[in-house]
Amino acid sequence: MEASISAPIAVITVLLLLRVFVFYLQIVNLGVSEHIMAMEEMDRYNGVGIKVYSHDAEISLIPGGLFNERLIKRLEVKAYFYNEDRIVRGKLVEEGME
Predict the structure, then answer these.
(1) Per residue of the chain (98 residues), what is the pLDDT tens digit?
(2) What is the pLDDT of residue 90?
(3) With helix as H, strand as E and coil as C, how does the chain read?
(4) How far is residue 18's CA from residue 82's CA, in Å, rounded to a whole number?
(5) DSSP E strand stretches across the chain
(6) Of 42, 60, 62, 44, which is closest to residue 52 (Cα–Cα)?
(7) Chain centroid, CA 27 distance in Å
């Protein structure tokens, strides 16, 4: 009798934890892909001075099962770009002001 009650609860708990873990991995994957996009944008930057990069992304868990509401995670990526070559070689902002 006790096993007929506790076994389904254990299975449901394991499935819920698995679903939350997959959502966490999606958040990590989104963060990594946003970081890669920011780094690619930085590699294309050839300007003089500092540029601010900002991008927003969002991921959500589809409601279902025990989740009645939609879980949403918003990521805001903000980075400051500068041209490393110009700064290392001593060609600073003054060159762009001419």
Answers:
(1) 577 888 888 888 898 888 889 899 999 999 999 999 999 988 888 777 788 999 999 998 877 766 677 788 999 999 888 877 666 666 555 555 55
(2) 61
(3) CHHHHHHHHHHHHHHHHHHHHHHHHHHHHHHHHHHHHHHHHHHHCCCCCEEEEEEEEEEEECCECCECCCEEEEEEEEEEEECHHHHHCCCCHHHHHC
(4) 42
(5) 50-61, 71-82
(6) 42
(7) 6
